TrEMBL record, chain A:
Protein name as annotated: ABC transporter permease
Cross-referenced Gene3D superfamilies: MetI-like
SUPFAM superfamilies registered for this protein in UniProt: MetI-like
Transmembrane segments: 55-82, 102-127, 214-232, 239-256, 297-322, 334-355, 361-381, 423-443, 455-476
Length: 488, 292
């Protein structure tokens, strides 16, 4: 068995995660975790839709920010994809997508303040990096044949529009609409840092233990996402895109002096600002590294590795829920509902809920990341098994699962998992804002102490770490000859 | 019933649309650090907004924020002109906005106190000095309030370092930041953290309102007094809202005597304050490295 590289790789990652468990801070610290969990589920079962007058507005804003952010992101991403063969463009895109939406929001909040632009850019910037990458992959994989058949002298723009785009259009459309769903999730969590979206009210209700209010918001959010195909119609899109900017809210006017101040003073390392020169700078940088960056990096890596393997385990357990090869239609439908809930709930919100219920440790983060990402991969793998034709006399039950299906889907399972590695790490860093000691914790502390120079250094370190894991993930996928696919 | 609610929804949706077009340039905006449950803050500061609006004859609006730093940033960026800050956030804000001034503080804020509280399952008995509690506190789990709070973080951290000569992380087995005082109280009461530190006013008010299970949580130590919350105003409000505006705001705050409104803070009244009153806070913050 160990002669298979995929199996070896799996066991190496499993061993790393087990090692991580030994050093990780895993605990349930609340006195009555199950009682609270019970109260939470009771709240979801008895939702109160009329608690806040602002709820409808928040929902509208959530949709508006998602539409404007994703639209700008996809347009900018499309343009960047055209230049993706140039290394500087690739590096630029890798960089902007390695910084999480919430970090972008925290940065823009410092100089745009509560202006709609803060939320729009926080979504549009990282999304354009992601769109650029995926669109360019789609272009690359398109059939080159139509282009060869064009008469000599055809302009490159015409060639692109008539020979390339039609072939990719379906994929671009599917992926973009998929990103819109991600955009809704991103938009919702921006409320946690103060933007007027759903997260704003969700955080308030949760922190005050008003579970029925919180339950109502979660249910509305699921409905919003589950009904996307019904109300997002190609014909209605132009209307939504034109209307969305008017529903972002008013916020406050931008004071451009603040923007200038941020870039010319705030983020300049303190020793340089105070004229202490290079000696002061290296002492300052050393202090940031030792007291904040290194502990943050360590915890981020430990948590990421545990969450990655936990995601894998959940995915393998979850895919039979929706697979045609097991159970009847009733079980599959409830399986679908479960997986939709798991993948529609942003990790950040899941982690926030679990932290409230179980107390602070890495456990809520691991469970949140594993449920969300496992829900996504489980869904994709489950769908894939539905295309597999088994022999009529093939075994059933657990034997079918372990000897027929898992070996057939294992390679694409690993491909998805390594693809999501970087995404899991990006989320892990962000979860620090909730009080788990990953890089986000130190970024948040620096911002709370109005030390944007430190915050920027830590955000840059987080970005580099993500870029590194992204490269490593790609290297492993290539080494194991795993095909890649685009997911959120 | 349902129809009524639906109408409320639709109206709020439409309002959010029309709000875009009606940007009011001359609205006097203020904020406050989110030191307590949001419902309470919104209730309290909407009252203050109505009161100030009446007294000052301009539109006054309160905006809620999600963190202490967001309050400071909004003040610094001139998106709010007045703020109800804690001791530390006020010092941070006034350092960043030259010309800004502390104009009023609560009667209680001259001598503010932090309470250390413990879950009764720890069997820690109240003590007169923090040093006496050393054996009891070591290895326990501990929560501050917000990272930027004076009574929930700065002062307790100062006293912990001062007494034990170590960072809180090495005294306790786990150190957290609950976010605000109400939550610190709830977390220690529930046993999520064994020990915590919070604003004494929040404790006293919740106690008086019967919201504390005194069998589950008790006060184990009180810090010496220090100056805390204050109203801070930007230096450039007179240019924007007219000559003498700052004095009008100060006067309105000092004359606030609506018992219900004061009770919601809870303060017995407001008295004059000055930037110099907060020197001790600045020194303490520099001492423990929160302020450069």
């Amino acid at each position: 068995m160990f002669s298979y590289p995929t199996v070896r790789a799996s066991f190496i990652f499993l061993a790393i995660a087990l090692g991580g468990l030994l050093v990780a801070d895993i605990a349930i610290t609340t006195a009555n975790p199950w009682q609270d969990l019970g109260r939470f589920f009771l709240g979801v079962a008895t939702p109160n839709f009329f608690s806040t007058e602002g709820l409808m507005t928040a929902l509208l804003r959530t949709v508006a920010f998602a539409f404007v952010g994703v639209t700008i992101g996809s347009l900018a991403g499309f343009l960047l994809a055209l230049g993706y063969r140039f290394l500087p463009v690739r590096i630029f895109c890798a960089f902007i997508r390695s910084i999480h939406e919430l970090f972008w929001a925290l940065i823009f909040l410092q100089f745009f303040g509560f202006h709609p632009l803060t939320g729009v850019l926080a979504i549009a910037i990282p999304y354009s990096g992601i769109f650029a990458k995926v669109y360019s992959e789609i272009f690359e994989e398109s059939d080159p044949e139509p282009g060869r058949l064009l008469p000599p002298g055809t302009g490159s723009v015409s060639a692109f529009l008539y020979a390339r785009i039609p072939d990719c259009w379906e994929q671009i459309r599917t992926y973009t609409s998929y990103r819109l769903e991600c955009g809704l999730r991103s938009s919702a969590i921006l409320g946690f840092v103060g933007l007027p979206t759903l997260g704003f009210y969700l955080e308030s209700s949760f922190s005050q233990g008003m579970y029925s209010d919180a339950g109502a918001m979660l249910i509305l959010f699921y409905i919003l996402i589950a009904t996307l195909p019904l109300w997002v119609r190609p014909k209605l899109l132009p209307f939504y895109i034109l209307a969305a900017p008017f529903f972002l809210g008013d916020g406050f006017p931008i004071v451009w002096g603040n923007v200038e101040r941020f870039f010319t003073e705030d983020i300049i390392p303190a020793p340089l600002r105070d004229g202490e020169g290079l000696a002061g700078l290296s002492a300052w940088f050393g202090d940031v590294m030792v007291t904040e960056a290194l502990p943050g990096i360590w915890n981020t890596i430990v948590l990421t590795q545990i969450a990655l393997v936990a995601t894998g385990i959940i995915s393998l357990l979850a895919f039979p829920l929706i697979s045609n090869h097991f159970g009847g239609p009733v079980r599959r439908t409830s399986g679908h509902v479960l997986l939709v809930i798991a993948r529609s709930t942003p990790e950040y919100i899941l982690a926030y809920i679990l932290l409230q219920l179980w107390g602070p440790s890495m456990l809520p983060a691991v469970v949140a990341l594993a449920l969300h990402n496992g829900g996504i991969i489980g869904h994709l793998i489950g769908r894939q098994t539905n295309t597999i034709q088994l022999r009529p006399d093939s075994p059933t039950g657990f034997t079918r699962y372990s000897w027929e299906l898992v070996p057939r889907v294992y390679r694409s399972f690993l491909a998805f998992l390594f693809y999501r590695w970087e995404i899991i790490m990006r989320e892990t860093a962000i979860l620090g804002i909730l009080g788990i000691y990953t890089l986000g914790f130190y970024v948040d502390s620096a911002i709370q102490n109005i030390r944007f120079d430190r915050a920027m250094v830590l955000i840059l370190i987080t970005a580099l770490l993500n870029i590194g894991v992204d490269a490593l993930g790609r290297y492993i996928r290539r080494k194991l000859a795993l095909q890649t696919m685009q997911t959120c | 019933m349902v129809i009524k609610h639906l109408r409320k929804w639709l109206v709020s949706g439409l309002l959010s649309f029309s709000a875009v077009t009606a940007v009011q340039a001359q609205t006097f905006v203020f904020t406050a650090i989110p030191d307590e449950d949001e419902t309470k803050l919104v209730e309290r500061f909407r009252g203050v907004a109505d009161y100030l609006s009446e007294q000052l004859d301009v539109d006054v609006r309160y905006i809620p924020v999600k963190s202490y730093a967001a309050a400071v940033s909004a003040f610094r960026n001139n998106q709010v002109q007045l703020a109800w800050f804690g001791g530390l956030s006020g010092v941070q804000a006034r350092r960043l906005v030259p010309g800004s001034e502390a104009i009023a503080q609560g009667v209680e804020d001259e001598a503010f106190v932090t309470y250390f509280i413990a879950n009764t399952s720890t069997e820690i008995e109240p003590a007169g000095s923090l040093a006496d509690l050393e054996d009891n506190l070591r290895g326990k789990t501990f929560t501050f309030g917000s990272k930027g709070s004076t009574s929930g973080r700065l002062m307790p951290e100062f006293h912990l370092r001062d007494t034990f000569g170590e960072a809180p992380e090495s005294v306790f087995s786990r150190v957290g930041f609950s976010g605000n005082h109400t939550r610190t109280l709830r977390l220690v009461e529930a046993g999520t953290y064994e020990v915590g530190a919070l604003n004494f006013q929040v404790w006293e008010k919740e106690l008086a309102d019967g919201n504390i299970d005194t069998d589950a949580v008790q006060v184990i130590w009180k810090t010496p007094a220090y100056p805390d919350y204050q109203w801070t105003i930007r230096g450039d409000v007179n240019e924007r809202f007219g000559e003498g505006f700052k004095d009008k705001v100060t006067k309105a705050l000092l004359e606030l005597d609506d018992p219900a409104l004061l009770e919601s803070f809870p303060r017995s009244g407001f008295i004059p304050a000055s930037n110099d009153d907060y020197e001790p806070i600045r020194k303490t913050a520099e001492n423990i490295g929160i302020l450069d």
